[in-house]
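Notebook entry, structure prediction.
Reason for the run: the old model in the group folder had no record of what sequence produced it. Starting over properly, with the input documented here first.
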Amino acid sequence: MKALGEVGPRRVMRFLWTSLLLTVFRRLWLPPVRAVFLRACGASVGPETVLHRLSFINVDRGGFRALRVGSHCFIGDEVLIDLAAPVVLEDHATIAVRAMILTHLNVGFRDHPLQARHPSKTAGVTIGRGSFVGAGATILAGVTVGPEAFVGAGALVNRDVASKTTVAGVPARAIG
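New structure, fully documented this time:
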């Protein structure tokens, strides 16, 4: 039970509780009901926001309070949001199908051979007002996508994106 030793019994209990909440969340099929449920769990979700069938990981670390979604946002099907650290989607942000927002990096247990070269990192992500994150794009920990920026489909965003900038590619680079 190496994992129990590293995270401790308190986090295991939080994991079990949040797993139960996520099981309920996955069964909610109407976007407005999903928003109400997330608010009841501590998330901030603005009015007129559409939440399709998205998934969360690491809710036991940051809790649903780590999620702040503005008004008039759209989160598409199969979007994955990591709540190890805060995730902020400002008003009118759009996250297309199968995009990922990651807030942490951890290669494994404390004794993993890569820990020395790739230490754990946890940092929040902000998606600015009126921004668009394309299908299959990945936003890494600590990144801010500026207001009205456009992230192309399949892009890997490993650094901040300036306001009103279009980026694409792996890694993402400005293209226009």
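Summary: The chain has three helices and 19 strands.
The old model has been moved to the deprecated folder.
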